[in-house]
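Q: I'm writing a short methods note and want an example of a predicted protein-small molecule complex. Could you take the sequence and the SMILES for adenosine-5'-triphosphate and return the bound structure as tokens? Please keep the output block clean; save any remarks for afterwards.
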Amino acid sequence: MLEAVDLECVRGDRPLFSRLSFSLKPGELMHVTGVNGSGKTTLLRTLCGLTRAHAGEIRWLGNAIHKLGDDYRAQLAYIGHANGIQGDLTPVENLHVATSLSGDADHARIGTTLERLGLAAYHHFPSKILSQGQKRRLALARLLVEHKPLWILDEPLSGLDVDSVALMTNILIEHLSQGGMIVITSHQEIDVDTKSILHIRVT
Ligand SMILES: Nc1ncnc2c1ncn2[C@@H]1O[C@H](COP(=O)(O)OP(=O)(O)OP(=O)(O)O)[C@@H](O)[C@H]1O
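A: Understood, no commentary inside the block.
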């Protein structure tokens, strides 16, 4: 379980949010919403341990994440605004590189994952020739190659066409049905079972 207790974040000298508390259990998705600049990315980066909270604590399975360090980071996959794709490498090579530090990555799944995400035809091409939406799909493919219980996703649906949004939604639902947890920002609705969705708005 992921918990935030009385979290407060400040950027520069501007307070973004304070006294933010929630808990996210296996099989649950938290949809973070808010206007541009309200602090959604800051919240996600703080939950990953990449940005320090001004006050409060984040806990994973009851332990403060700053004490768990790498043991916590090994449990999560973070996909931010940037796709983190190396243009001269093929999609397969990119997935190898992106998941190389994951002890539990299943490289045998790379082929079927690229097929599922509609990228099989680009197997041998450098990734720089992919369109923006295809690059986003390649970035998201990492989720299916690694086996991380916690996905923290910043606008994963941005730039995706209608079919790709539906595909990605199915992937999110599958992860939840396997006991995974998801924290996600999106300016669009996420079509998952309302019983497993928590809404949080930063203002
Ligand atoms: N390194 C930084 N130093 C100072 N201020 C920052 C820094 N990073 C972000 N900010 C400020 O913090 C605020 C929140 O930024 P953040 O990226 O978390 O917002 P957001 O809700 O994700 O926005 P968007 O919907 O536009 O992606 C913004 O006003 C931004 O200018």
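A: Remarks, as requested: Residues 80 and 154 are 5 Å apart (CA to CA). The chain has two domains: 1-75+149-203, 85-148.
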